[in-house]
């Protein structure tokens, strides 16, 4: 069986302080930033015993970087032009997800240039001439 690589190239050091004000203290009853080295196991069905056996055998378990807000980020939100693209098919609840992403980017991070790509991946094709759509919390 071929081993899957989930390695992600690093964009360099994160130097911009996040505009989201979270806690760096565990147990203070406030939401915390995700630490840069936090990971989760890829195989969630693997029991603790199987995970321990993997570690003891010298094999590295497949780990994924944990998602969530970081204390330091790569880009200044004032300079970000965010784009949201879906696959273009029907997906109940997707509009709510897009709405939440736009509201979070706008209100919490201060990103004010957010665009939606029309008609999924087809929207990236210049010959389709669909253009993008500005997204705001009001829209």
Give a structural overview.
This protein is α+β, with helices and mostly antiparallel strands.
Q: Approximately how much helix is present in the residues?
A: 10-25%
Radius of gyration: 19 Å
Give the CA-CA distance, first to last residue: 48 Å
String of helices and strands: EEHEEEHEE
What is the strand and helix layout of this fold?
Layout (H helix, E strand, L loop, with lengths): L15 E2 L21 E3 L6 H9 L6 E3 L6 E2 L7 E4 L9 H16 L3 E5 L14 E3 L5
Parallel strand pairs: 5-6
Antiparallel strand pairs: 1-4, 2-3, 6-7
Descriptive key words:
139 residues, alpha+beta, 2 helices, 7 strands, 18% helix
Briefly say what this structure is.
The protein is α+β, with helices and mostly antiparallel strands and 139 residues long. It has two helices and seven strands.
């Amino acid at each position: 069986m071929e081993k899957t690589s989930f390695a992600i190239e690093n964009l360099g050091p994160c130097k911009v302080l996040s505009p989201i004000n979270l806690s760096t203290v565990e147990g203070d009853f406030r939401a915390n930033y995700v630490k840069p080295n936090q990971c989760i196991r890829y195989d969630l069905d693997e029991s603790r015993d199987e995970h321990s056996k993997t570690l003891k055998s010298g094999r590295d378990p497949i780990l994924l970087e944990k998602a969530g807000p970081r204390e330091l980020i790569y880009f200044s939100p004032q300079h970000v032009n965010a784009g949201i693209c879906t696959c273009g098919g029907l997906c109940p609840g997707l509009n709510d997800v897009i709405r939440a992403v736009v509201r979070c980017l706008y209100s919490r991070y201060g990103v004010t240039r957010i665009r939606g790509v029309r008609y999924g991946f087809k929207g990236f094709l210049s010959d389709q001439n669909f253009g993008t759509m500005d997204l705001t919390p009001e829209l």
